[in-house]
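Hey team,

Filing this mostly as a record. A colleague (T.K.) asked me to run one chain through the structure pipeline before their review meeting, and I want the input and output archived in the tracker in case anyone asks later how it was produced. No errors, nothing strange. Just documentation.

Input sequence:
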Amino acid sequence: MPFAEPAYLVGTGGAVGAVLRYAVANLLLRWGQSETFPTATLLVNVIGSFILGLLVFGSMGSEAMLFVGVGVCGAFTTYSSFSVQTVRLWEDGRRGYAVISAVGNLGLSGLAVGLAWLLVG
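Output structure:
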């Protein structure tokens, strides 16, 4: 059954990534980060982009890519939360934060991938 192994790798990696994202958010709250700006979302998106860049440019094998790339990074990063949080910031009149969120997530994640490329390439 060719589908069973990849599904297992992606599912297990996804569980790890989701727990790691939850841990990052809780850690930031413990360190006193307020909910004024979605720092945890920005942080996980940049870190996840860097890790995925390392995998892609480091030519990892298909099993590692399924587990870490698709599973862990897929669940650790969150485009949907980033989108909703940014729109809510805008709707709440915190437009400067909304712009920082959008530019920060897209720009810093792109820079993280570029840094991974420089390190591995």
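Quick notes for T.K.: Residues 46 and 106 are 9 Å apart (CA to CA). The chain has one domain: 4-120.
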